[in-house]
Amino acid sequence: MKKQVLLDSFPYKVDSNGACSMLGDDGLCTVYDHRPIICNIEHMITLYKLDQSEYYKTCADSCNILIKKTGLSKEYLVEIPEKLT
């Protein structure tokens, strides 16, 4: 399955900032136990036979780009522990 197919089949609305409509006021996912495949990192790695460390690094890099673009504090930047890379 290609990435665009997963994105196109995302079942929830996303606002102009890219935030999912299933995020609660506390910033946590309200459908976590039944979240879509694209939101389940471990399942994605297994299902698509991805390299775990590369996938984690790609996700962290994407998060950090968004954190910087939105002007959030550097304390929110994602760092991947060496044991995962």
Description:
The protein is mostly helical and 85 residues long. It folds into 2 domains: 1-50, no CATH class; 51-85, no CATH class. The protein has 3 helices and no strands. The chain has helices at residues 3-8, 41-47, 52-69. The longest helix has 18 residues, at 52-69. The protein is globular. The two termini are 25 Å apart.
Please name the defining characteristics of this protein.
mainly alpha, 2 domains, 0% strand, single chain
| Overall strand count | 0
Q: What is the straight-line distance between the termini?
A: 25 Å
Shape: globular
Average per-residue pLDDT, rounded, comes to 85
Look at the helices and sheets and give the structural class: mainly alpha
Characterize the main sheet. none
Give the SSE string. HHH
The proportion of strand residues reads: under 5%
Summed up, the helix count is 3
**Rg on CA atoms, Å:** 14 Å
**Number of domain units:** 2
Residue stretches low in confidence (pLDDT < 50, at least 5 long) are: none
Helical content (DSSP H or I, runs of 4+): 25-40%
Q: What's the helix and strand layout?
A:
Elements: H1 3-8, H2 41-47, H3 52-69
